[in-house]
Amino acid sequence: MSTTKWVIDPTHSEIGFKVKHMMFTNVSGKFQKFDASIETEGDDFAGAKIHFSGDIDSVSTGNADRDAHLLSADFFDAAQFPKISFEATSFTKEDEGDFELTGDLTLHGQTKSVKLAAEYSGQMKDPWGNTKAGFALSGKINRKDWGLNWNSALETGGVLVSDEVRLAIELQFIKQ
Hints:
It holds the Pfam family YceI. Residues 5-174 form the Lipid/polyisoprenoid-binding YceI-like domain. An eight-stranded antiparallel β-barrel has the order 1-4-5-7-8-9-10-11. The protein has one domain: Lipocalin, CATH 2.40.128. It contains one helix and eleven strands, in the order E-E-E-E-E-E-H-E-E-E-E-E. The protein is mainly beta. The protein has one helix spanning 64-71, and strands at residues 3-8, 14-21, 25-31, 34-41, 44-55, 59-60, 83-95, 98-107, 110-125, 131-142, 161-175.
């Protein structure tokens, strides 16, 4: 069986995250510069090799001061750790259209294994004849597992920034 390569369509993909602020509201952000690829045997995605990398300095939360703080040594330390990356270690079909994606997430100079739910949306030809495949990924990580420890206590109890980061990722790939 031949290997099929897929590359990310960045204009139709989004690498997003949400973090609770002051324990009760979510702040959303995304990475705007990234690259990803998939290698499959034929058209079956089970067991696919998946690679992702993103530029830390492309983080955007819609607030320039907050983004500057995220890039500082308090959080991502973009000067020392300019990339976030992910290498799949397994991509297992759970049910029709549902997969479990396990892999190594490297962030802030540390690599840890994470599991994400992956919903496969199917394949379709676009108006220009390109075959596209869509996925929605979701999951949670604890930012402190990667050494992103900065926080500030609130007078009322609790902390300014939650440890839990929820991932919301929409991906569209183009068959090569």
